[in-house]
C-alpha cells in the first residue's frame, strides 16, 4: 500500500520527469515542485513545458529546468549530452520518472504499419532504456535515488506496439530493480488505471471523461516512490494500492 503523502517533502531532490508538459507527468511535476523538489521537465512540446515552468515559478517553488526532447528521434548521443548537461548543472539525479507515452494508432496486427510499430516501440520502450542507461551514473551520485515508470497492462486486441512496449517496460523495470538493489536504488512502476488525459481520450474517444479520475488525484503514489521513504523495489502499484 502507498502511505499517505500529504505531509511528504522532497526538498533538495533533483527529479527528471518525462512527458512533464501534460497529463500525469504535469500533475506529478507540480506536486513534486510543491513539495520542494527541483524538476527537470523533459518533453516534446516546448510551450507545454513552459506553462509548467511558469506555474512552478509563479507559486514560488524551486526553479525547474526545461529539457525539450523528442523521444521518437533522440539518438544515444542526445542521451549522452543530457547526462553531461545534468551533471554540469546539478551534479546528480535523485529521481527519474519514465512517464512519457504514446499510443500510436489502435490497429490489428495484420495491418499494423511497420514504420509506426518502430516509432511506438522507440517512444515507449527504447527511449526509457536509453534515458535510464544515461541517467544511472547520475543516480549513483545520489544518496537516495529512485526510478519510477508509468506503466500499463494492455495485452488485448488492437493495442499493438503500445501494449507490447508497455509489457517490455515492466520486464525492464524488474531487471533494473534486481540490478540496482545492491546500490540501494528502488525501481518501481505505477499502473494508474483510466485517467482523464489526452492519451486516454485518444484511446477511448467516445468515453464520458467526467467519470474518469483526474491526474491530480493519483500523484501520491508517484511522490512516495520518488521520495526517500520508499522501501519497496520491483513492484507495480495499481489503483487499489493508493
Ligand atoms: N491516461 C491513462 O488512462 C493511462 C493509463 C495507463 C497508463 N498511462 C500512461 O501514462 C503515461 C502518461 O500519459 P498521460 O495519460 O498523462 O497522457 P498525455 O497527457 O497524452 O501525456 C503523455 C506525455 O508524453 C509525452 N510524449 C509523447 N510522445 C513523446 C515523444 N515522442 N517525446 C517526448 N515526449 C513525448 C507527451 O508530450 P506532448 O504533450 O508534448 O505530446 C505528454 O507530455 C503514459 O506512459 C501512458 O502510457 C496512462
What does this protein structure show overall?
The chain has 242 residues and is of the alpha/beta class. The chain has one domain (14-241): Rossmann fold. Helix content is 42%, strand content 12%. It is built from seven helices and seven strands; from the N terminus they run E-H-E-H-E-H-E-H-E-H-E-H-H-E. It has helices at residues 23-34, 46-58, 76-89, 114-140, 160-180, 198-203, 219-226; strands spanning 14-18, 38-43, 65-68, 95-98, 146-150, 187-190, 236-237. Strands 3-2-1-4-5-6-7 form a seven-stranded parallel sheet, with helices on both faces. Strand 2, helix 2 (46-58) and strand 3 form a beta-alpha-beta unit. The longest helix is centred in the middle third of the chain and has 27 residues, at 114-140. The radius of gyration is 17 Å and the shape is globular. The termini are close together. Bound molecules: NADP nicotinamide-adenine-dinucleotide phosphate. NADP nicotinamide-adenine-dinucleotide phosphate binds at residues 19, 21-25, 43-45, 48, 70-72, 99-102, 123, 150, 152, 192, 194-195, 197-200.
List descriptors.
242 residues, alpha/beta, Rossmann fold, seven-stranded parallel beta sheet, 7 helices, binds NADP nicotinamide-adenine-dinucleotide phosphate
Going by CATH, the architecture would be: 3-Layer(aba) Sandwich
Approximate strand percentage: 5-15%
| CATH class group | Alpha Beta
Read across the widest sheet, the strand sequence of neighbours is 3-2-1-4-5-6-7
Poorly predicted segments: none
Strand segment tally: 7
Order of helices and strands: EHEHEHEHEHEHHE
Q: End-to-end distance, in Å?
A: 6 Å
Cα shape: globular
Which fold name corresponds to the CATH topology? Rossmann fold
The CATH superfamily name is NAD(P)-binding Rossmann-like Domain
Overall number of structural domains: 1
- Helix content range of the residues, please? 40-55%
Total helical elements: 7
**Could you tell me which ligands this complex binds, including any ions or cofactors?**
NADP nicotinamide-adenine-dinucleotide phosphate
Structural class: alpha/beta
Q: What is the arithmetic mean of pLDDT? A: 97
Gyration radius from CA atoms, angstroms: 17 Å
